[in-house]
Design brief:
single chain, about 350 residues, alpha+beta, Rossmann fold, Porin, 11-stranded antiparallel sheet, 6-stranded mixed sheet, about 15% helix, elongated
Length: about 350
């Protein structure tokens, strides 16, 4: 990751040596070479140093009668500088204590043997190695963990994500004591700095004989990273042949997006039935809801947690409400609660 926190200056030429390993049962073969190689890759992304020699192996150093473990004298580092034409070397150690692994690294001047910068990280299991090496490389470049996290958040705000969603919905019409599970929800999402688009559909597996089907589309214009305004539309139909009813309506309204935290995305749709029909016991009703606040209108909310750059999961909660056009709001003809659990997987890419 190339960060803008690095000042433009004459770059030091560095070489990296094998790390000393203390302790047993570290579940990585040749970890004395693996860690410095990973560290080199991260340092190369940051571009603070010129890496002249990628990894000086202990065998090569032994041939030159040099020992870079433990304390490094200025005489030894001077000789390294003359042999390889570098200004500094990166050395370090890997130590396992109980179940924790500590990695220490330092950049040492070949002129005076003094430490230019150093860093230390700890991991509780080997799966954290890549992430901790990234932190260690930034520490060696003078970038703290807090600065790295802030920079990642800035980069996250600039990213665009395309994803697909899968979910399952639980539906309940409290006016008719009718409940039904919709096991197949598919959706698409586009999240970018300028706008978000989210659409999908509940696919009935029984041809809507005893179930629910519908589609929805949301569009949000992002005023900033944390807040957005837009429009939402829903077309819904659910029916029961055994209970002799068929309900169909279109619902539209104002959508508000709020992101209180970097990993949390909230969307609220305040909507009204713009066109609807209920057929029940051989009678038909034209229904509406008007633009009112809950509980006398439709209200939909989405709670989405970002687990990783490409993966998120969340909860959708829909409240569909409609009454006959010429009766009081309290005399409800249809009130459906629909709750969905979903996962979203896709890919992200940075915008320049």
């Amino acid at each position: 990751m190339s960060l803008n926190l690095i000042a433009k200056e004459n770059k030091l030429k560095i070489a990296v040596v094998e790390f000393e390993v203390y302790g047993e049962n570290i579940d990585v073969k040749d970890i004395s070479k693996v860690v410095p190689e990973m560290l080199i890759a991260e340092l190369d992304k940051i571009k603070k140093y010129d890496i002249e020699e990628r990894l000086l192996l202990s065998k090569v150093l032994e041939e030159q009668k040099l020992n870079l473990s433990g304390f490094i004298s200025s005489e030894v580092t001077n000789k390294v500088g003359q042999l390889y034409g570098v200004d500094a070397i990166v050395t370090g150690s890997i130590m396992k204590v109980s179940e924790e692994i500590y990695i220490n690294a330092r950049i040492v001047s070949v002129v005076k043997g003094e430490i230019i910068s150093s860093g230390k990280v700890m991991l509780k299991n080997i799966s954290q190695l890549s992430n901790q090496i990234e932190i260690l490389a930034n520490l060696l470049c003078g970038i703290t963990k807090e600065q790295l996290r802030e920079q990642k958040e800035i980069q996250q705000k600039k990213r665009t994500k395309e994803g697909i969603e899968y979910g399952i919905f639980f539906n309940d019409d409290i006016e008719r004591s009718w409940t039904k599970i919709s096991p197949l929800y598919l959706g698409y999402s586009h999240y970018s700095k300028l706008f978000d688009i989210n659409g999908g559909g509940i696919i009935p597996l029984d041809g809507i004989k005893e179930g629910l089907g519908g589609v929805f589309l949301n569009f949000v214009f992002n005023i900033n990273y944390y807040f957005g305004l837009g429009l939402g539309w829903i077309n819904l139909e659910y029916k029961s042949e055994s209970m002799n009813f068929d309900i169909h309506y279109n619902q539209a309204g104002i959508l508000i997006k709020f992101r209180p935290l970097n990993f949390l995305n909230l969307r609220f749709l305040f909507s009204a039935v713009i066109r609807g029909e209920i057929e029940e016991n051989k009678k038909k009703y034209s229904v509406t809801s008007g633009f009112r606040f809950p509980p006398h209108s439709g209200f939909c909310s989405t709670l989405e947690f970002r687990i990783s750059d490409d993966f998120s999961a969340g909860l959708k909660k829909y409240n569909f409400l409609a009454q006959e056009s010429d009766i009081k709001p309290e005399e409800i003809r249809s009130q459906l609660f629909s709750t969905g659990l979903f996962v979203n997987y896709g890919f992200t890419f940075a915008n320049k």
